[in-house]
Amino acid sequence: MTSDDSAFTALWLRRFHAREETTRFVVCFSHAGGSASYFFPFSAQMPGDVEVLAVQYPGRHDRYREEPFETIEDFVEPITAALRPYREHELAFFGHSLGALVGFEVARRLEEQGHTLTTFFASGRRAPSTWRDERPETLTDEEFIAEIGKLNGTSSQVFADQDLVRMVLPTLRSDYTAAANYRVSPEKALNSPVVAVVGDDDPKCSLTEAEAWSRHAGNHFDLRIFSGGHFYLDDHREDLIKLLAGAFS
Question: Is 123 a catalytic residue?
Fold first, then answer.
């Protein structure tokens, strides 16, 4: 791998706790407005034989000068390319909310190239073949912020700071639009096992919508339900880490 390849991979994939001997990696895709750093605690607590690779999208944190992507398809090629050094290893994907859609498409692309995941975990997102008539682009900034606030995933202090609002709102809007406009037919399925994970009080994903991921599973599907809302994972991190690490057992 050339230095340019290494730099490209490092731009997209963050290794917070590099474990040089491991051959098992959980690739984590964050929610709308989220960043790789959201998964730092997951990385720190992951068992020693498993490492987290956290995807860093453009338009946030150290990549804030880059334009955010506006379609799910925009994410696929660069992330697939960034994963090239890891394709000979065991990979599981965990995508939360927007990240479930991004991860699903990257997993499909990897399968086209001959690499099947050990498990694909879809968290807090309805199956891509289900449909809600959501049009975030029609909302005013105030309405959009109120909608985000219902999920209890972004600190109210962020939206109280107008400078921060101006900084993060374009990225949030792009992320929400990408997710809302994404469509896929039920016959688009992965060969890998699929595990849908959801909070039992998630306004963005009902249990029925989570179970619909079974349409996109190859040889195995499972549904795991935790107490809580859209960000149930903040209260169930230890149990979720055990679930993710179990993908390699």
Answer: no
| Tokens read off for 179 | 């997710």
CATH of the domain at 42: 3.40.50.1820
Domain that holds residue 21: 3-243
Q: Tell me phi and psi for residue 82, to 5 degrees.
A: -65, -30
Model's pTM, two decimal places? Answer: 0.93
For residues 181 and 99, the answer to whether their CB atoms sit within 8 Å is no
In tens digits, the chain (249 residues) has pLDDT values of 566 789 999 999 999 999 989 999 999 999 999 999 999 999 999 998 999 999 999 999 999 999 999 999 999 999 999 999 999 999 999 999 999 999 999 999 999 999 999 999 999 999 999 988 888 888 888 888 888 877 776 544 555 666 677 778 889 999 999 999 998 888 899 999 999 999 999 999 999 999 999 999 988 999 999 999 999 999 999 999 999 999 998
Active-site choice (30, 35, 43, 97)? 97
Q: At what angle do helices 162-180 and 72-82 cross, to 10 degrees?
A: 90
What amino acid occupies position 191? N
In a domain, 138, yes or no: yes
Ranges assigned E (strand) in 80-172: 90-96, 119-123
Burial class (CB in 10 A: 0-12, 13-18, 19+), 211: middle
Examine the residue annotation and report whether 230 is marked as an active-site residue of this protein. yes
**Is residue 249 in a domain?**
no
Please check whether residue 104 lies inside any domain of the structure.
Answer: yes
Domain count for the chain, please give it: 1
